[in-house]
Write a structure and sequence with these properties.
This protein is mainly alpha-helical. The protein is elongated. The chain has a two-stranded parallel ribbon. The chain contains 3 helices and 2 strands. Helix 1 runs parallel beside helix 3 and helix 2 packs antiparallel against helix 3.
Length: 105
């Protein structure tokens, strides 16, 4: 016999901090890709403007990670965006740290 489809009607909503985390992590990743392309196109002579935009991307990634991790404390919410935002922000932060360490060496 086939299983019956079960529908659930719950009052759970997505976390605002999780959505914010996903947006900040996405902005940081997009900024990373755009700045990496501009730096490649200008043969590494981007100057302080690209550096300051990169620092802004690092701040976005850190804020997104903190926001995503703090959203797990909320009760009666869906954790989809919290998980996605934490993952995206942590990947962006690892990429930014890699670029900074590559530039220091």
């Amino acid at each position: 016999m086939a299983k019956k489809k079960m529908y659930t009607f719950s009052e759970h909503r997505h976390s605002r901090k999780g959505i914010t985390s996903t947006i900040l992590g996405g902005i940081s990743l997009i900024l990373f890709v755009v700045l990496a392309y501009i730096a490649w196109w200008s043969y590494g002579e981007g100057g302080p403007i690209l550096g300051s935009l990169g620092f802004t991307g690092i701040i976005f990634a850190i804020c997104g990670l903190v926001s995503g991790l703090s959203s797990f404390r909320e009760k009666h919410i869906l954790y989809t965006f919290s998980k996605a935002g934490s993952i995206v922000s942590s990947v962006a932060l690892v990429l930014w740290i890699f670029v900074v360490l590559l530039g220091v060496s």
